[in-house]
Sequence to fold (169 residues):
Amino acid sequence: MRIREASYSDIEGIAALYDAARRYFAGAGIPQWQVGGPDEITAFADVEDGICYVVVSPEGRLEGTFVLDFSGEPAYERLFEGAWSTEGEYAALHRVAVAPECKGRGIGGEMIAFAEARCRDAGVEALRGDTHEKNAAMRRMLEKNGFVACGRVRYPVAGERIAYEKILD
Fold:
């Protein structure tokens, strides 16, 4: 598997990964991404901004996608029921999706390792992310990779999320 910056030719595949994740969430009773969730327009904007990455199999199939955004997340300015561990620069990990047939193969960990390396290269001290409290798989992946729950954030459409942070060495 290889991780690279997403290109315009990946947008349809990224949107398909988002759709698969949305269907999984709906079937599991997780309200995440059901209203205002990421779609093809979101993928286009993320590719345009150069913040979207894809995990590609040796055969060229998209196995996962994520966003690594160094510009900050406005929702992270108002953390409640807790506090961030750091006050310096951070990168936000967003829109993580793995193809259903690829789950359980360590792709999430590879995404985190890639994001951490990019953060270190940029001199950023922390990596932050958030997820719905019912999204046990994402919570488990973040915690397994050294993230700590720091509190909660609210999004205008998506609602409340558990906020995580990992301080980088």
Observations:
- The chain has a mean pLDDT of 95.
- The radius of gyration is 15 Å.
- The longest strand covers residues 90-98.
